[in-house]
Amino acid sequence: MDKDLKKVVILLAHPHIKESQANKALVDAVKEMDEVAIYNLYELPGETAFNVDEWSKIISHASAVVYQFPFYWLSAPSLLKRWQDEVFTYLANTPAVAGKPLLVVTTTGSESDAYRSGGKNHFTVDELLRPYQAGAIHAGMVWQTPIVAYGMGTAEAGKNIAEMANQYKQEIKELIGKGNAGNNW
Fold first, then answer.
1. Which of 126, 157, 119, 124 is nearest to 143 (CA)?
2. What does the pLDDT profile of the chain (185 residues) look like in tens digits?
3. What gap in Å lies between CA 133 and CA 5, rounded to an integer?
4. Which of 83, 129, 140, 151 could serve as 111's disulfide partner, Cβ 3.0–4.6 Å?
5. 120 with 154: CB under 8 angstroms?
6. 3-state DSSP assignment of residue 11
7. What's the DSSP call for residue 117?
8. Assign residue 33 a region: left if phi > 0, alpha if psi is -120 to 50, beta otherwise?
9. Nearest to 105 by CA among 6, 15, 27
10. What are the φ/ψ torsions at residue 70 (nearest 5 degrees)?
11. Element (DSSP H or E) covering residue 28
């Protein structure tokens, strides 16, 4: 499962990635990059509980962590929360994540104007992602500005996906360049 212990670990939480346009395109933009390991939490073989020891090794070696998911009901799909409860709760109290960047990459069905005060969803994506930011800060991680591909349910979806895929690739390159070999604890 360790995928040769890469510098950037992407935790993909998408229950139907093969049918996805947006998240699949984002993954495709970075999956061939050296030093990137992508773990789709929904495709891990037969796990009823996450192996904290195995994940500790993976995350300790990494220099950055990425949560990638479609914005379901103003949050991530449930398996990312389960990973946080079972693995991140433990890691947050160790040097494994301290000082490492945490980047959230997400996609929305609505256009960006829907995510503002007075908009259809009444809150900005930054406001809705506060629990992830708070968790990162609590664990001593460095919160990164989220990458949000808006409007996947609109006529602009293709253009937005292409722009965000390029931005994602650039951000991952920067995270690879910033990192060291990870913590050896």
1. 126
2. 556 678 999 999 999 999 999 999 999 999 999 999 999 999 987 667 899 999 999 999 999 999 999 998 888 999 999 999 999 999 999 999 999 999 999 999 999 999 999 999 999 999 999 999 999 999 999 999 999 999 999 999 999 999 999 999 999 999 998 754 444 44
3. 25
4. 151
5. no
6. strand
7. T
8. beta
9. 27
10. -80, 145
11. helix 22-30
pTM: 0.91
Give the pair of three-digit tokens for residue 162. Answer: 């292409």
Do 13 and 79 meet the contact criterion of CB atoms below 8 Å apart?
Answer: yes
DSSP 102: E
Superfamily of domain 8-178: Flavodoxin domain (3.40.50.360)
Q: Taken in order 182, 87, 132, 24, is the CA torsion positive or negative? A: positive
In the structure encoding, which two tokens stand for residue 182, read together?
């990870």
